[in-house]
Specification:
Length: 170
C-alpha cells in the first residue's frame, strides 16, 4: 500500500513538472524554428489575430501618450492623432507581422528592422528572461544590454500547448 502511494505521489510530481515545463518547451520550439528560419513551423506557435490586436492596442496607447488635461483625460490632440494613426496602423500591422518578421525579432533585431526586413546592426549579445506572469501567461523578454526589452507573451492554448499572442514593444 505504501509503495502504491509513493508511486502515485511520484507520478503526480512528474505530471506537475511536465505541466510547469510546457511553456519552456514551446519557447524552445519557437526559437528553434526562428533560428532555422522555418516560417511554417513558427506560424504554428503564433496566434496571429491576437498578436496583431495586442500590437495595435499597444501602439494606440503610446500614441495617446501621457499628456492629460486638468480632468485627467488624454488631450484632444493626442486622441485625434491616435485615431488618425490607428486608421493607418491596422493594415500596416496586419501586413508586417509575419512569421519571418517574428523570426528576425527572436534573433535580436530591433523591432523596426525586424518587421520591415531592413538590415539593422548585428544583434550582438542578447539578454533574455523568462517567467510566468500567471497560470496562463508566460513572458519571454529579449533585449540588448543597454536597451529596453521586447516582451513576447505566450498564452496557454489548451492544457499543454502555448501560442505567442502578445508583443510588448519598449
Amino acid at each position: 500500500m505504501r509503495r502504491r502511494h509513493q508511486l502515485s505521489l511520484a507520478a503526480a510530481l512528474l505530471a506537475g513538472l511536465c505541466f510547469y515545463a510546457t511553456p519552456y518547451l514551446a519557447l524552445h520550439q519557437i526559437r528553434s524554428a526562428a533560428a532555422a528560419q522555418d516560417a511554417a513551423k513558427l506560424a504554428g506557435y503564433v496566434d496571429f489575430p491576437a498578436l496583431r490586436q495586442s500590437l495595435k492596442t499597444g501602439v494606440r496607447a503610446r500614441l495617446i501618450g501621457d499628456q492629460r488635461n486638468e480632468r485627467g483625460e488624454p488631450t484632444p490632440a493626442n486622441v485625434l492623432g491616435a485615431a488618425v494613426a490607428g486608421a493607418l496602423l491596422g493594415p500596416m500591422v496586419d501586413s508586417l507581422i509575419t512569421p519571418e518578421s517574428l523570426a528576425r525579432l527572436l534573433q535580436g533585431q530591433q523591432p523596426v528592422a525586424a518587421v520591415t526586413g531592413m538590415a539593422g546592426e548585428p544583434p550582438g549579445t542578447l539578454q533574455t528572461r523568462m517567467a510566468y506572469e500567471g497560470a496562463d501567461r508566460f513572458v519571454f523578454s529579449v533585449s540588448k544590454p543597454d536597451e529596453e526589452p521586447v516582451d513576447l507573451v505566450l498564452r496557454r492554448d489548451g492544457l499543454l500547448h502555448w501560442k505567442l499572442a502578445e508583443l510588448r514593444l519598449p
